Amino acid sequence: MKDLRIEIRSRVIVNQVAPFAVLVLVLFGFALDADQRTLRLFAPGLFWVAILLCLLLAVQRSVSLEVINDSLLGLKMAGLSPSSIFLGKAMAVFVQMIFLELFLTGGVIIFYGASIDDLALWIVSGLVAALALSATGTLYGALASGLEVRETLLPILLLPVLAPVLIGATKAYSGALGESVTNGWQWTGLLSLFALAALALGAMAYGVLVEE
Amino acid sequence: MSTRKIFKRNQGATSSPKSRLLGLATLLGLVTLFVFAFFLTDPDVRLHPTTGEEIGQFDAVRLLYLHVPMAIIGPYVAPLVGAVASVGYLIKRTQWWDVTAHAAIEVGAIFCGLVLLTGSIWGRPVWNTWWEWGDVRLMTTLILFLMLLGYLALRRVAPDGQKQARRSAIVAIVAAINLPIINRSVEWWESRTLHQKSTLSELKIEDLTFFTLMMGIVVFLMLFTWLVLHRFRLGWLEKESLEQDVLTSIEERRSEATVNEEGTL
Fold first, then answer.
1. In this structure, are residues B5 and B241 in contact, taking their beta carbons and an 8 Å threshold?
2. Testing the interface with B: which of A140, A145, A149, A156 to mutate, by most B Cβ within 10 A?
3. B134-163: per-residue pLDDT in tens?
4. Which among A85, B148, B206, B256 would be 20 to 30 A from B51, CA to CA?
5. Which residues of A touch B177 (CB under 8 A)?
């Protein structure tokens, strides 16, 4: 189920979302009217803001796929439990996020002149943050699905909830990219806690949502 | 269904003798509170130990008699009531819990907004800034306020009753669980904070100040209860009238159908 989904979606991610992410990086460059030193300093934060915007697109996409084919009904009829549908969808978004993170890291290295100082921290915090984002995103995608105003409702519901992830991931990346002396591992711990809570809550709540 | 129609059906009001009494008591309490806060208590003026200069919050301290009670209700009491009612809804699945959650969160959102506003007005002369990024409670309240607005937005657009109630309940519960995490993350993010560490526990403040502050908390809790009560009744009537409308139109269609059948016969 998961692999199939990723396969179907990956083309949209590569063709549209990834270029959008690069565009955001470039726009930040224009907006800050900045030399590489400033951009490098703010690279972790800008990176994660760009990722959040991409997450919104990825989640919208993930939800609209269900609507077009009414595939949720199919999955339910195939006897899959709601929590495994949730985990499957979250994993699909997770893989997309990892792809985008790798892609955008290339972007900040090229455009902003950033460099990875702490490889282990970079990998672990990136993975954990992607997990937190995809689990929360999938849950909120389901919350907003089926509504006419889905596109406008999702950001206002999702972004405030993700505030701790943005803060944590930015701090962890500041450590990993060597831009500030923060305890990146402490932040990664907070991100892990958030990711676990989001996964558990999502798996529980999804059942309530797909009852419809 | 317009509010006016609902009012007409219920002979003009969402009040009952008891809630009218509570409303009256709250009104009296508010007037008394204003008299104490703005006239009877002293402005916060102290003398600097070495230079002898006058320092302190001066008249700005009076705003705290409104700000602190609202800050207890908006970001703490109201979301808690909302989250508990939402859990109650998911267990019991009755309209009562759903309407309670909605009422508490809607009133809570107003209080949160007022807390941010009064805090900002107070912060301008005292902290010399409208907004302080490094302050944990300020940032947490803002994010909470945005989450509450999201909840209300969802309530406005979600389709039928059951669906709306289920989704809203989940949003409220997630917001409540997320709150300590947001608080912790902002705290780590900027470890310095301007907010006073609970002055109440130190018991250094004067008797009249303390009394006024306590009175403020009681009066605002009454106000909160009164507002939630009325919002609850309004929400309940709204749901009932919606159901009534559906029943009426079913009835109408049915009678039309009977007429048609008779006509053809």
1. yes
2. A156
3. 677 788 889 889 999 999 998 888 666 788
4. B206
5. 197, 201
Exposed e or buried b per residue across B178-215, where buried means at least 16 C-beta atoms within 10 angstroms of its C-beta: bbebbbbbbebbeeebeeeeeeeeeeeeeeebeebbeb
Q: DSSP of B152-215, one letter per residue?
A: HHHHHH--SHHHHHHHHHHHHHHHHHHHHHHHHHHHHHS----S---HHHHT-S-HHHHHHHHH
Provide the CA A54 distance to its chain's centre, in angstroms. Answer: 7
State how far the Cα of B249 lies from the Cα of B257, in Å rounded to an integer: 12
Query: Can you tell me the mean pLDDT for B112-130?
Result: 87
A166 and B CB contact within 8 Å = no
Strands (E), chain A: none
Dist. CA B131–CA B124, nearest whole Å: 8
Average pLDDT over residues A91-112: 89
Residues 6+ apart with CB under 8 A from A104: A21, A22, A25, A47, A50, A51
ipTM value > 0.90: no
Give B202-231 pLDDT, tens digit per residue: 445 667 888 888 899 999 999 999 999 999
Check CB contact under 8 Å for B143 and A187. no
In angstroms, the separation between the Cα of residue A94 and the nearest Cα of chain B is 20
State CA A72 to chain mean position distance: 22
Question: Which tokens in the block code for residue B254?
Answer: 């049915």
Mutate to test the interface with B, among A67, A157, A165 (most CBs of B within 10 A): A157
Nearest Cα neighbor of A204 from B87, B185, B155 is: B87
State which residue of chain A sits closest to B182, comparing Cα positions.
A164
Interface membership of A48 toward B (CB under 8 Å): no
